[in-house]
Please model this.
Amino acid sequence: MSTPEARARFEIDRLLTAAGWVVQDVADLNLMAGVGVAIREFPLATGFADYLLVVAQKAVGAVEAKKVGVPLIGVEAQSAKYGAGLPPHLKAWRRPLPFLYESTGVETFVTDGRDPDPRTRRVFAFHRPETLRAWAQESVSLRARLRTLPPLITTGLWPAQVERGTESRNVPCR
Model:
């Protein structure tokens, strides 16, 4: 672990493992090793993904690793290339890949491509493979569902509660 990049990847490996991922090199690929497999240096049509995330033998996301201190804002464009560069012969939950991470091992961001307005969000840990599988099986994200809330039931509410509830339904979800 002599370089900053190697130290970041060591920490990312540790974080992925703690979240339930089996971390493997592409040369040692075994998609049956666990529910979630994170494959290091996976070749894509658009370059090498630092990690390709595979759940139940289908690709679901990618991780772009950066050394500590590199600002992750702006790195999502690189992750998006990996999300779109999946080889056609590889099975995927959807194309482009919906869950794209950027991480230094100290801070981690994720973009859910299913969102109506996808953008990076800071997370405290990588999501578990079971969580990404459940989300990948849903046709729309939570933020998309929040945009289509049913009418407010006002029975038993004070006028101020009704007013605030109506206002909050007219504000776009961020």
The chain has two domains: 4-139, 148-174. The first strand starts at residue 22 and ends at 25. The chain has a mean pLDDT of 90.
